[in-house]
């Protein structure tokens, strides 16, 4: 018992909780925005962006009267990166805290998440975002294949490919017939999130409605991971003529329609 108490007090000393009650905002941003921020020079004193809060003075007590808008500052690597974004605020989410760790291993609690935001291009920038999506789609369609010469032609050090599970060495005396693995039994590898979004946009250029099963077959992605992407980009039809299918949210439909033209 004494030893357990000692370990517990040691753990509490290693965690800095001085900012534990500080309010923190959590924001989910597009991949291109995150890449733009990560490429920012830390020595540059200029801010990355600024948040503009609009309030209706006649409805000051109404939370719905608050409008948040983010404006990107400075130049960006992507030519068509939108400069203005709308921030949709959510208060109904799982309680979360933010932690940080230094190179020396010091862990600090930076605060509690007070508001959660989803970030999307502002209405005036939707055309620029559409151009950016088309550029990413075109880049994702380019396959850079490389040919590599393997000295060990017996393939001892090569990983088995999907569908080859159960293969035995050709030098074995007891050769068994290889049973191919079904497609549904293969473990699908997750693509990069931004690349998968581009593929989804490309599929919705072909037709407006898709079932989850169809999209899994087209993208060859794990169903659960694909549903996470679809929940962000699409609306699920629970009734009507298109029941059981996904279609793009209105703010993304315009980009796809422009691409189709």
TrEMBL record:
Where's it found, cell-wise?
Nucleus
Q: Which stretches make up the TFIIF beta subunit N-terminal domain?
A: 22-140
Using the UniProt annotation, give all residue ranges assigned to the region (Disordered).
Answer: 168-192
Where is it found, in Gene Ontology cellular component terms?
transcription factor TFIIF complex
RNA-binding among the record's keywords?
A: no
Please give the superkingdom of this protein's source: Eukaryota
The answer to whether keyword Isomerase applies is no
Keywords, comma-separated and alphabetical: DNA-binding, Nucleus, Transcription, Transcription regulation
* Any matching Pfam family: TFIIF_beta
Any one GO molecular-function label of the UniProt entry: DNA binding
Q: Which residues form the TFIIF beta subunit HTH domain?
A: 190-253
Where's it mainly located?
Answer: nucleus
* Family matches, as InterPro entries: TFIIF_beta, TFIIF_beta_HTH, TFIIF_beta_N, TFIIF_interaction, WH-like_DNA-bd_sf, WH_DNA-bd_sf
Example GO BP: transcription initiation at RNA polymerase II promoter
As for family, the record states: Belongs to the TFIIF beta subunit family.
> What is this protein's name?
PREDICTED: general mRNAion factor IIF
